[in-house]
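Amino acid chain:
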Amino acid sequence: MSKQTVLGRVGQLAKANINALLDQAEDPQKMLDQLIRDYTNNIAEAETAVATTIGNLRMLEADHTEDVDAAAEWGGKALAASRKADELRASGAAGDADTFDNLAKVALGRQLQSEKEAKTAEPTIAAQTEVVDKLKSGLDSMRNKLTELKAKRDELVARAKTAQAQNTMMDAVKNIDVMDPTSDLARFEDKVRREEAKALGKQELAASSLDAQFEALDDLGKSSEVEARLAALKSR
């Protein structure tokens, strides 16, 4: 994965507008779940790419440090060879002195080469350092966005459950209104009242029949008394 691709992916995902995406979704929860999966996968890919980029940068930095150290070392060797040549020349050993001067020249050439390589690598290291900083910042944004997505998903699920519970309760209340059980109680109460009235009627009817029997008995008593008085009159 090239650094341009990584930067583009990181920038695109980090700038994603969650609310706008949700407004366009038919099923926001499913879309959030999919976004979380996509973000998680892309973060893993980006982390691998960033790790590779950082590794390459560290290698460049190590090579640069090695070149700088090598330049310093070759500079030291050139100085030592030059001093040795001066000592030999002062003692009259011009041939040996020329040999050490040649060694000093070789060391100086190596020093120049190391300095050149170190200087050439510096712009690349600076550019790669900037890329790594941007990638790290982008990854942080992606991780923050993932946290936001998860929180949004959890909030949505909780709200959906609450709404479902409210709808279930309202449906139950509606069913109670449509099929009011108090009407059944009223019908049962009316039936009980009719049974009670029927019992009262029977009681009243029974009482009326008993009164009639007593009245008949009284009439019978009165008739017997009349007959007795009649017989008494005749006996006189």
Q: What stands out?
A: The mean pLDDT is 80. Residues 152 and 207 are 81 Å apart (CA to CA). The helical segments are 3-14, 18-23, 28-90, 94-178, 181-235. The radius of gyration is 57 Å.
